[in-house]
């Protein structure tokens, strides 16, 4: 029941925050405001003077300062105003940031079409994050007519400049044949580039390809390597599979204690199949002392989340454990499951 066939369709992702998409908020120019340094008042005064004289670079830097709150009070409206002045002069980084602000409705009224306009202007000047964003808006039809081939074009340009999320998204498109001909080898190559930069979803997907031998030679030890990297970053599905591999001894020596460790991490995030495996291990005393109350609790939680045949199997596992328990033990297991649900309700997707 733990090895269900996996749907290979993977979602194209977008990290929303300014910092993760554009790096440090500071814009390289006359004034670089690092995350650990603050501009002196005289430098700020000079920056304002240059910006008011129409210096696009200074306007862009001033927008960045208002956006981040570095040296001056944070003010998205002012950030958008200065970015616009710079953007209208063709300052590419300001065009990118103005696109982000229109996308998120921060400092301006949210307007996806206006966001796409500014992303395009910056993307055509070679700004990699703007190219990535333009790929995203085309893939989802946000402010533009959806065009998957156009999406792939812009993702590729950003990916070739090293944007990890664009590399991952291009891997998704190749893996699923979205906007490009399906090509698992290409998918694996793009996932690898993103994974090597620490992009967690790419690490998980690359582990998956090695586990299944899709686009790469099957290598379960290599799969474990990538699953572990993703699991260490909190990816629940990678934690679940790593727990399962330790339980079965696939790609690693069988180790029930490590199976419990990784399954528990996934189970605590609400991963139902990991909850089911954890219940199984508690019921059999694998890697933990045998504990029917804990086994019932985890099977019960799994049964409430799984669907179809897997849910039926979880029901059966729970009832088999219940046959070995007293009424008081069942009541305690149900109480623990209820408390777990209450505690994790807002955390579990």
Structure description:
There is one protein chain. With 349 residues, the chain is mainly α. It has two domains: 17-161, Tetratricopeptide repeat domain (Serine Threonine Protein Phosphatase 5, Tetratricopeptide repeat, Alpha Horseshoe); 234-349, Tetratricopeptide repeat domain (Serine Threonine Protein Phosphatase 5, Tetratricopeptide repeat), CATH 1.25.40. It has 18 helices and no strands. It has helices at residues 18-22, 41-52, 56-68, 76-87, 92-104, 112-123, 128-140, 148-160, 164-176, 184-196, 200-212, 220-232, 236-248, 256-268, 272-284, 292-305, 308-322, 327-344. Helix 13 (236-248) runs antiparallel to helix 14 (256-268). It is elongated. The chain starts with 17 loop residues before the first helix and ends in a 5-residue tail after the last helix. Mean pLDDT is 90; it is low at 16-39.
Strand count, sense and barrel status of the largest sheet are:
none
- Can you tell me the CATH class of the largest domain? Mainly Alpha
Helix vs. strand class: mainly alpha
Note poorly predicted spans: 16-39
Task: Describe this protein with a few key phrases.
349 residues; mainly alpha; Serine Threonine Protein Phosphatase 5, Tetratricopeptide repeat; 2 domains; 18 helices
Summarize the structure.
By secondary structure, this protein is mostly helical.
What is the fold's blueprint, element by element?
Layout: H1 18-22, H2 41-52, H3 56-68, H4 76-87, H5 92-104, H6 112-123, H7 128-140, H8 148-160, H9 164-176, H10 184-196, H11 200-212, H12 220-232, H13 236-248, H14 256-268, H15 272-284, H16 292-305, H17 308-322, H18 327-344
């Amino acid at each position: 029941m733990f090895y269900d066939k996996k749907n290979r369709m993977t979602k194209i992702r977008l990290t929303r925050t300014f910092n993760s998409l554009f790096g440090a908020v500071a814009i390289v120019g006359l004034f670089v405001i690092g995350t650990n340094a603050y501009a002196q008042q005289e430098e700020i005064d000079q920056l304002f003077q240059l910006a008011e004289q129409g210096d696009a670079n200074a306007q862009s830097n001033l927008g960045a300062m208002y956006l981040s709150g570095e040296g001056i009070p944070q003010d998205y409206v002012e950030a958008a105003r200065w970015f616009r002045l710079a953007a209208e002069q063709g300052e590419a980084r300001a065009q990118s940031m103005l696109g982000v602000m229109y996308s998120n409705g921060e400092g301006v009224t949210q307007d996806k079409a206006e966001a796409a306009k500014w992303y395009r202007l910056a993307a055509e000047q070679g700004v990699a994050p703007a190219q990535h964003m333009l790929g995203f808006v085309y893939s989802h039809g946000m402010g533009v007519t959806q065009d998957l081939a156009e999406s792939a074009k812009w993702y590729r340009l950003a990916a070739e400049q090293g944007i990890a999320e664009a590399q991952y998204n291009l891997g998704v498109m190749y893996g699923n044949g979205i906007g490009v001909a399906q090509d698992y080898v290409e998918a694996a190559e793009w996932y690898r580039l993103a994974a090597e930069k620490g992009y967690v979803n790419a690490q998980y997907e690359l582990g998956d390809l090695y586990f299944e031998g899709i686009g790469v030679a099957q290598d379960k030890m290599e799969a474990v390597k990538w699953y572990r990297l993703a699991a260490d970053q909190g990816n629940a599905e990678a934690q679940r599979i790593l727990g399962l591999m330790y339980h079965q001894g696939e790609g690693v020596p069988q180790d029930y204690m490590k199976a419990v460790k990784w399954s528990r991490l996934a189970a605590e995030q609400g991963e139902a199949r990991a909850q089911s495996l954890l219940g199984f291990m508690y019921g059999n005393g694998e890697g933990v002392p045998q504990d029917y109350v804990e086994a019932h609790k985890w099977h019960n939680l799994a049964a409430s989340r799984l669907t179809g045949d897997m849910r039926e199997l979880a029901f059966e596992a729970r009832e088999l454990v219940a046959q070995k328990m007293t009424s008081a033990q069942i009541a305690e297991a149900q109480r623990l499951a209820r408390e777990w649900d209450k505690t994790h309700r807002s955390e579990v997707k």
